[in-house]
Amino acid sequence: MKNKLILIFSLLCSFAIYSQEDTKSFSLQEAIDFALENNRTAKNAALDIKAAEKQKWETTSTGLPQISGSIDYQNFLKQQVSVIPAEFFGGNPGEFSEVIFGTKQSVNAFAKLEQKIFDGSYLVGLQSAKVFLEISKNAKEKTDLEVRKAVINAYGNVLLAEESVKILERNIDVLKKNLNETTKIYENGLEEEESVEQLQITLSGVESNLSNTSRLKTLAYQMLNITMGTEINSKTILTDNLESLTANNIVLELIGAEENIENTIDFKIAENDKTSKELLLKLEKSKALPTLNAFVNAGYSTFSNDFVFTDSKQKWFGSSLLGVTMNIPIFSSGGRSASTQRARINLEKAKEDLTETQQKLKLQIASAKSDYQFAIEDYGNKKQNLNLAERIEQKNQTKFFEGIASSFELRQAQTQLYSSQQEFLQAMLDVINKKAELETVLNKVD
């Protein structure tokens, strides 16, 4: 029995330790930092940068010396027969003799060194590799901004659900107390049955909202876990609360922030696109230029009718060759010209897209600033409305139990209060989210 108790105690301790290790606490900033390292989309964007770096070297290496080697072994199953005039060997004129040239088996081993001397497409390729790396870095920056915004939204949704559950539970406690008191008054014949029924209807609606909000809270935690890059059902604890987070996110200076379009990530991406189109145009033009390559090869060959190539006495014959190859494009039936014109058209489109992006960014920034300012103003308005709704509900509750107000008037006041509570919570969340949207479009992240 004693051993069983010790075993059970050990298991409970192990479970407690495991539970503590499996539980993680995050402030909003900690959740953002964690997501930037563990979010799967962010990790893939970081891998894209590494792949771009490798591709850059891959492109560079094609212009560096290339060494290749080959070994050929040949064995004629039946050697080719040639005929020559028989008179070469003292025969009769007009007759031919059958001869076999060469040996039945041979081995050739060669090494070749190649080097580009001039290739216009290679020079453009080097520039393109740098641009591609820059595109990957900008894509990573864009991804990080979007991940940050997604974490803020998900974190805020969890806090909203948590606060909603607490408020609904408090409302239910008050309603149950009111229903209990009203039922007793009704049983004593001092209140109408309708008053009890009105409170029952209100209580039923709030309980239904609580059940739904509790389910949404679970989903909100799961969404946050996915966004941060943790297991979907991980135990996550949030250390920030909605009200303090809202207060910290009211930064009026951000509304008057300088609109430097060139520093925004969307502009950089559009500029990358224009640069890539310029390089494609250069590439098409370079195809009309000659290419010049040099090579050196060296090798050994040996011949025999039998396989004796591993014999140290076997004689090998060396050879070496130096060469230069120039390829000159002369006539392509207008194909190169058409390709160049197409690349020039695409470049013009990219320039137009860049201008369009500038205009859209100006509009997005102005819209984001307006939305953020409205969210701050709406937050103050909703906070004031909530205070008024609480006072009105409290007055009607007092009047109801004093017999001055009807149950219908009380229910109206309660409904107004519940609506004001949710609107206030949403207003706080809007301040946080609208600030995140403005920071994202401005590319201003603390």
Summary, kept brief:
The protein has 446 residues and is α+β, with helices and mostly antiparallel strands. 65% of the residues lie in helices and 15% in strands.
Defining key terms:
8 strands; two-stranded parallel ribbon; four-stranded antiparallel sheet; elongated; single chain; 9 helices; 446 residues; alpha+beta
Describe this structure in words.
The chain is elongated and about 150 Å long. Mean pLDDT is 89; it is low at 4-9 and 11-21. Helix 2 (28-38) packs across helix 4 (120-187). It has helices at 2-22, 28-38, 40-61, 120-187, 193-228, 242-248, 265-286, 335-401, 407-442, and strands at residues 23-26, 66-75, 82-85, 96-99, 105-118, 235-238, 291-304, 317-327. With 446 residues, the protein is an alpha+beta fold. It is built from nine helices and eight strands. 65% of the residues lie in helices and 15% in strands. The longest helix is centred in the middle third of the chain and has 68 residues, at 120-187. The strands form three sheets. A four-stranded antiparallel β-sheet has the order 2-5-7-8, with no helix packed on it. A two-stranded parallel ribbon has the order 1-6. Strands 3-4 form a two-stranded antiparallel sheet.
Flag low-confidence runs.
4-9, 11-21
Outline the biggest β-sheet: 4 strands, antiparallel
Strand order of the largest sheet: 2-5-7-8
Strand content: 5-15%
Distance between the termini: 60 Å
Principal-axis shape: elongated
Task: Output the radius of gyration.
Answer: 41 Å
Structural class: alpha+beta
Q: Assign a percent range to the helix content.
A: 55-70%
Q: Count of helical segments? A: 9
E-strand count: 8
Helices and strands, in N-to-C order?
A: HEHHEEEEHHEHHEEHH
What is the mean predicted local confidence, pLDDT?
Answer: 89
